[in-house]
Amino acid sequence: MTVSLEPLRRIMDGLVHGSATGDTLVAGRHRAFIAAHLAAGLAALMAMPLWLAFAGLPSPAVAVAFLWLVTPLPIAAFLSRTGRYADAHLLSALSLTGLVGWIAAFTGGLASPALAWLAVVPAEAALSGSRRVVVSAAALAAAALGALWALALAGVSPVPFALSPLFAPAVIGSAVLYAVLIAIRIETVHNEARLAARLGDTRYRLLADNATDLITRHTANGDVGFASPAARALVGCPPADLVGQGLFHRVHIADRPAFLRALSEADRTGEAITAEFRLRSGAGDTGPYLWAEMRCRPVIDPASGRTVVAVTRDVSSRKAQETAFAEACSAAEQANRAKSQFLANMSHELRTPLNAIIGFSDILEQQLFGRFEFERHHDYARLIRSSGEHLLDVVNTILDMSKIEAGRFEIHVEPVPVAGLVDSAIEMMSHQIASRQLKLVRRLEPGLPAVIADRRACKQILLNLLSNAVKFTEAGGTITVASRQTGSGVIIEVIDTGIGIAPEDLPRLGTPFVQADADINRRYEGTGLGLSVVKGLVHLHGGSLAIDSAPGRGTTISVTLPAERAKPAAERRVADRDAVAFERERRIA
């Protein structure tokens, strides 16, 4: 029948402090210390009933010795609770020295065979791995001998125990056996350390041999002290060729300052530094260059002290993508500039003859140089003028859009009263609204503050929104112009009861030359630039544009513009009244 020790091992693992569980070797040392001291303390507790059964009540000296034998239990608990391995060894050395000194005092003093256990004290302390603990344990053993020698010189001798002839061989033999057990523990610790080192070296070799990134260790002057086998995959040479200045000589001559600067900064600052450089691959001095990225950071090498470890990888494909992306961006910018320049030139070239066409057709329509023989000629002149004006509006809109996209549309901000702005736009659109048999509703919140914006741009925003609302609202519908104040400024809304916009078309609105009704047989004319100009002008003012619409439900377009600080209600009413009067006087003039 085989007895499994796995449950006992799990119990011991549970007693190891959490700070020691991350290292297998350290956890093994803690586990062995706790197990040995628990076994010693429990053995002492089990021996007490046997002593009482065979020897009766112990004397005070023997009782103190028994209490001393139980001290390994609290020492094991101390290590389990704190994880302070060196301090636990020091407490163990103190306990063992005191116990040996106490027993020796009652069993012959300096002639007691129990003093053989003092040799065990520094030997067990060696398991701590701390020179301080070993020296302290040796000092405690020496102090115990000194105390016994001082008692002997002073003639102070406690009443000795009645010793059996087997006492001396038993004590010395147990000390030798305990020393052998300590030696076995030391050997076990050394074997575990060698196994851990071998396992770590094997894992490191496994990672180094199979990693695609080159790992190098550099000295203070940048020379390579170690290179991983990935050198063959990265630059096509054995690792030995990169040792010393081999890697430096493969760096492109123009990138060598960046290479050395990264290593120097990492060593000086203690932080991770990244550098990109060209690295020659292949044999000889004429091989092709690849782009490499090196990330280096300082580490402490137990053998050579502070050193810099670098990980280098091939980033040629990424650099190629970045180059292609930069070229594509440059080509797109050039195309956009060419488009803007083309639109600006074409707009200028078209406006000159259009002004002439509109002017002469207006003269003909008014019959300033004589009446037409046929009334149809008068209609022709009117159609020429209206078509020319429409084409001029399109050209001006295209020109404004190109200026906005090129960032050359200048705005001059000033306080603009909202009431006057709305009334001016409504008056300019009143003829179109009346001709389409639409109802207009003006709903402005009392005491609105003035918007801080360009007056001409704001009027164009309102005219474009009203024009769209008129265009897409059937006869008998309603157009509402509303405005209210919010925490972020003033909101101006144009609400219509027109055909509405499908949800899938909403994201495309505001894109130049894009209309929601883009079918070849669409019912409504237009270039799709009106809302684009509105969007651009609103963004120039730092405002925002929102669209809420659904087919058959109409459309609500909200424009938010920055406003000046709030004024008292009476002052705002006077300002609105003055602004409306000013707008009317300016239009009359």
Question: How would you portray this structure in words?
Answer:
This protein is of the alpha+beta class. 56% of the residues lie in helices and 14% in strands. It is built from 17 helices and 12 strands. A hairpin with an 8-residue loop joins strand 3 and strand 4 (289-301). Helix 15 runs antiparallel to helix 16 (530-540). The radius of gyration is 48 Å and the shape is elongated.
SSE blueprint:
Elements: H1 6-15, H2 24-55, H3 60-69, H4 72-82, H5 85-105, H6 120-125, H7 131-154, H8 167-210, E1 214-218, E2 224-227, H9 231-235, H10 246-250, H11 256-269, E3 273-280, E4 289-301, E5 305-314, H12 316-366, H13 375-406, E6 414-416, H14 418-435, E7 439-444, E8 451-453, H15 455-471, E9 478-486, E10 489-496, H16 530-540, E11 544-550, E12 554-561, H17 569-588
Parallel strand pairs: 7-9
Antiparallel strand pairs: 1-2, 1-5, 3-4, 4-5, 6-8, 9-10, 10-12, 11-12
Task: Give descriptors for this structure.
single chain; 589 residues; alpha+beta; five-stranded antiparallel β-sheet
